Amino acid sequence: MRLLITGGAGFIGSNFVRYILKKYPDYQVMVLDALTYAGNRDNFEENIWQNPKFSFYHGNICDKEVVDSLMRDTDTVVHFAAETHVDRSILEAGTFIQTDVYGTYVLLEAARKYKVKRFVHISTDEVYGEAKSPTGENRPSLETDPLMPKSPYAASKAGADRLAFSYYTTYQLPVVISRCSNNYGPNQYPEKLIPLFITNALENEPLPVYGSGKNTRDWIHVLDHCAALDILLHSEGQDGEAFNIGGGQEFNILQISKTILKMLEKNESALQFVLDRPGHVMRHAVDTSKIKNVFGWQPKIDFDEGIKQTVDWYIKNESWWQKIKGKSIEYQEFTKKWYEERN
Ligand SMILES: NC(=O)c1ccc[n+]([C@@H]2O[C@H](COP(=O)([O-])OP(=O)(O)OC[C@H]3O[C@@H](n4cnc5c(N)ncnc54)[C@H](O)[C@@H]3O)[C@@H](O)[C@H]2O)c1
Fold first, then answer.
1. 287 tagged catalytic
2. Is residue 168 among the annotated active site residues?
3. Quick one: which of 49, 204, 213, 331 could link to 254 by a disulfide (CB 3.0–4.6 Å)?
4. How remote is the CA of residue 268 from the centroid of ligand 1, in Å?
5. Does domain 2-187+220-247+283-302 have CATH number 3.40.50.720?
6. Which pTM does this prediction carry?
7. pLDDT tens for residues 177-203?
8. E strand or H helix that includes residue 33
């Protein structure tokens, strides 16, 4: 298999690259990544750079020429590349629409032209908005629920999700779509909740909790997500289908914060309640019966164990996150701008 992995230098993408190269040593893996603030060459260990089956292309998915030149040599696409941070989308939505919607269009067009055999589109459970039935009953989202995204990030992902679907219905492009819940694990950029809280706690900085901290998310370890994507990548007969993926482990933000503080033996006085995020979703949760029934997929990593491993990873890899968090002007500027706008 000749795989084109977009956004492979980001959090989930780099975990997926590692997973695929280990499990399928014969596969050719090409990564296309623009190396935005969230993309990081350091997410690939030396043995990956040395692997003859791995190649890295620094480029933008919105660039038709670059995409075309790589798609020519590809039979399968796994499309992770996106702007991904909800807070940033509230400050500046334009780049989200450009990358997440237009960039997806560029990839779909090239995939159609070069007749790729499988296009795995990475969507998100954020596309559903609140986890509710169409009549307002509080329950995990189903694939058949209406898409009611509540942030510019979620809306641009919803656009890309349906655009990918339309390339199946219109052009029979063999697309399959994943809608996963909140991932956690190694190599996640430290502006996202779990790595932000771990690294702040390690630095004895406050942990900023939006609103009441009662908003809940369904947490999944990134390797469970990778295993589900592996199944979708090799699936047959499911063209055009969307699949929810989730850990089935719901915790609110306060519970997550307290777990992290306890693990690091820090005091709960580090919690700092801040003004709520506009459009903040109260509950994201997905019903994963479909992927379980069709493919027998189940998450394997228990949250207690997964979070312990993740905290350990951040303790052991301080130089990885310090380079981004402590020394990055970009990171400092984003944080400053965000807090200025929120106060
Ligand atoms: N993190 C989660 O909890 C989660 C949950 C469900 C779905 N997703 C989806 O999974 C995918 C990956 O998420 P992540 O958390 O790893 O994100 P991330 O922000 O860590 O990584 C995104 C990657 O995309 C690259 N990129 C951004 N714009 C690009 C462009 N124009 N051209 C090429 N590369 C570009 C970045 O450099 C980075 O390497 C996204 O599509 C996201 O919507 C994430």
1. no
2. no
3. 213
4. 31
5. yes
6. 0.97
7. 999 999 999 999 999 999 999 999 999
8. strand 28-33
